[in-house]
Amino acid sequence: MRPLRVPRATRLGAATLAALTTVAALPAPASADTGPGWVSGWLGDTTIGASGAPGRTALFNLSSSADAVSPRATFDVAGLAGVATATFPDWCVTGASTVTCPMPPDATQDEWGINGNVPIVLRALPGAADGASGTIGYTPLADGLDAWAQQATVTVHAGPDAIDLVDEYIDGADTGDRLAMPVAVLSAGDQPVDDLRITFRFPVGLEPAAYRNCQYGARDQLSTIVVCKVGGLLAPGARYEVPGGFATTVGPAAVGDKRIVQSVAPADSAGPLPEGVTFSRRDADQSLRLRQAAEPVDVIGPDHQYASGQYYLRDIHGAFDVVALGASATGAVGDTVRVQVGLRNDGPGVPDGTISGDNAARFVFTPPAGTTVTGSPAGCWLWGDEESDEVSTTWYCPKPGGVFAAGETFLVAFDLRIDGPTGAPGEVRLQSPYPRTDDNPANDIAPVTVG
Asked: How close are the terminal C-alpha atoms of the chain, in Å?
């Protein structure tokens, strides 16, 4: 790579640093599509450590249609004067304060077009103060297409900083397993981290081990929040791990996909503990400790840039049974009767839609023949084929919230007017069993009768 320094012709003032996130979302990608084919590019804002911190890699994404001629991007780094240097790959052409990069040699093609990434290593200049910021202008180009310039901001953060390095996906875990969840962190600032706070969110069904230097609390959606303070100095650029990982048991409530989220921060800047959680200590014979795992890094790669990470368990089979609950009522023609219908989770597995933001349980209700729904519960609606000329009489009812706890019952009330002689019974049917068909599908449908 060729480092590119820009003249200190422009001195930029300090700006307030809102958060320690890096490569954050910015405006929509610049693009041009007035000629043959199309080309677009995107570079996010980046926060870098002050001089002495490891460099940060920002990725510029360049995309084009397959028929675009000579897709490329030009970069104007004059806006970084006095703030940072930018180092581009060797296959880019460097000028005085501009750089031109063709489509990366390792670009890939899919049905939408060609996509490649240009890694740009950013480093703060000596003397760049906390909050100092500059800009990189960029313009995606292709022959015959109009150019459209855009820019990204580079901001300096001085002081200690930490990045979580965990991003693992695990297959084959099952209830009863005891797992060693990795905990790994990189000291990313220009100053050492003096004591580290690590915060974990364990979803329902995953049970964290007890450590002396951790606090435990329950939160909504049956999750467990764990906050650990690990003492010691973490040198800039050094990677640290918890030897043997954080012991985690897959409990009987676990079923489907589970994500343990972890985040790290210097203890003195981590802020207050999570709101709405009452924390307590647990009896423990061990403490959570960090140990340096590798030599300090000079450049932080593009794959791990954030203070949060995840440990994702895929498709835990688990055991569970969700039961459809029907109803019966009696009345004369012209009467209105009320029926309560729904679902019950007989456990032990707990369907958990918090990973996807989905409902953990849902059913459809079809009223008995000879009746008309005159009152329906909030949160239920008619469900059918919008393109059909037939009027739908089936109601769709999702359970509010993302978790359906073992032993919990979800019931809603419908008012039915008896219009005439009753015919075929209605039914309650578990709709799209989540996260899989349960162990007793025979009880996923229940009748609803009016006599």
From this structure: 81
